[in-house]
Amino acid sequence: MATYRIRHCERLSGEISIHAAKNAVLPLMCASLLTKEPVTIERVPELTDVHTLLEILSDCGVSVRRDGDRNAPDSTLTLWAEEPQSPTSGDLLSRMRASVLVMGPLLARTGYARVALPGGCAIGQRPIDLHLKGMEALGAQVQLTPGSVTLQGTLRGGSVYLDFPSVGATENIILAAALARGTTRIENAAKEPEIVDLCTFLNEMGAAISGAGTGAIVIEGREALHGCVYRPIPDRIEAGTILCASAMTEGSVLLRGVRPDHMRALLFKLSETGVTLRESPAGLRLSGRASQPVQVRTLAYPGFPTDMQAPMMALALRLRGTSVFLETVFENRFMHAREMARLGAGIRIEDRIALVNGGRVLSGTDVTSTDLRGGAAMMLAGLAAEGETVLHDPCGHIARGYEDLPSMLNHLGAHITVEGFPEG
Ligand code: EPZ
C-alpha cells in the first residue's frame, strides 16, 4: 500500500535521464528461455513487473544473476535456461499479463507449455486468442482447460494473419518461430519499437528475423540460439509521462537518453498544445506551458499510444477549452476520469469517447490509482490541483511501470512525499 502526497506545482525545470523501457525489457527476459547460454540485459529498471517476471522465470528453471548496484545505470541482469519447464505457480502468472510471453519460448524450446490464462485487468478483457492462433499456425496442439492452456508439438514454420496488430501476440509468435523448423510469416504484425528491440535482441542471439517494424515480419527458424549482451531502448511512455507533467507547468525540461523517433505521434500532439519541443545531441527539451485543447485518437503504433492516453488527459485538464479523447485500443481505459472528477475536473465519458472541459480550477483531495497509467496520470493531476492531493495506490500500480516517478518529478521541482510501500 502506498500513499503519495502531491503539492500544487507551477514550475518544473531541469534535466532527467530516462530508464530502459519496461515493455521492451519484459519480452527480452522471456527470450532467455530460448537458449541455455547466458543473455545479459543492461540497465534493467527496478520495477515490480520485472521482479514478478523474475520469479516466474525462476519457476520456469531460469537462472538469474544481477551485477552492479540495482540503481546504478551500469547494473546488468544475466539469465540462462539450461533445462526450462512450464511454471508451476499459477498465481504468479495471473499477477502480470506479460507472463503469457513465456508460452512461445517454452513451446519452442521444450515442445510443451502449460500456462495459467492471464486474467483480464482493469483496462479490459485482454484475451489471448491471437497468441493461440499463432501457436496453432506453427503446428502446436492447443488445449484450453479452466484457468489454463496447454500447448504441445514440434513447431514448424507457418503463416499467420493477426486480426489486430497485437503487441503481445506478435512477440509470442516471434519467440516461438525463432526455433521452429522453417520460415514463419506474420501479417498485420505490431510495429511498436519494442517489437523491433525484441527482434534485434533475438538476431544478436543468432536468430534470422527480417521486417521488424513493418506489418510483415519473417522469421527463419534456427536449431539453437546463443547468448548475447544487450542494452534495451529507452522507455517512451516514461518519457512521455514526464513531458506531459512538464507541459502542465511553466519551465523547461530536458530528457536525456530518449528516442524522439519512437515518440512522433505524442510529440506532434504536444506541439499542438502550444509547447516548444527541441531535439539536440543533449536530448529532447520541452519548454513552456501547454494552452490549446487537443483531439487524441489512440491507435496501434505509429499512432498515438494508448499508454499515453491517461497522462495526456491529465495535461488536458489545464488546456482552456474542450479536448476530445477516442480510446480505440482498450475497452475500459477511462477509469482515471472519475478520479480526476473528484479534483473538480469536467470530463464526460460516452463509451470510448471522453470530452475534457479543461481550464477549471482543481482542488486537492483524496484520490485513488485505478491502474498503472491512470495512477501516473493522477500524480500529474495532483500537480495541477490547488493545495495537496493524496493519491492512494493500494495495489502498487504505479511502481509496476515507473522506477521512481515521484523522485523524477521532485528532481524537476515537484513536492511529492511517499508513505508506505510503493510496491503495494
Ligand atoms: C502491450 O500489451 C503493452 N504491455 C501494453 O502496455 C500496451 O497498452 C499494449 O501493448 C498496446 O500497445 C506490454 O508490452 C507488457 P495488445 P498487450 O495485445 O500485448 C486485443 C502498460 O501500461 N487483443 O496489443 O497485452 C486486446 O484485448 C501496458 O505498459 C485481442 O483481442 O496489448 C486489446 O484490445 C498496458 N486478442 C488490443 O488487442 C489477443 O490475443 C491490444 O492488445 C491479444 C490482444
Care to describe what's here?
With 424 residues, this protein is α+β, with helices and mostly antiparallel strands. 31% of the residues lie in helices and 26% in strands. The strands form six sheets. A four-stranded mixed beta sheet has the order 21-22-1-23, with helices on one face. A four-stranded mixed beta sheet has the order 2-14-16-15, with helices on one face. It has a four-stranded mixed beta sheet with strand order 4-5-3-13, covered by helices on one side. Helix 4 (103-110) runs parallel beside helix 6, helix 5 (129-137) packs parallel to helix 6 and helix 10 runs parallel beside helix 12. It is globular. The model has no long low-confidence stretch (mean pLDDT 95). The site of ligand EPZ has 25 residues, from helix 1, helix 5, helix 6 and helix 12.
Poorly predicted tracts of residues: none
- The percent range for strand residues is 25-35%
The Cα radius of gyration reads 21 Å
Would you tell me the structural class of the helices and strands? alpha+beta
What share of the residues lie within helices?
A: 25-40%
Please count the helical segments.
14
What do the pLDDT scores average to?
95
Number of strands: 23
- Report the span from N to C terminus: 4 Å
The major pleated sheet works out as: 4 strands, mixed
Shape: globular
Ligand kinds: ligand EPZ
The spatial strand order of the largest sheet comes to 21-22-1-23
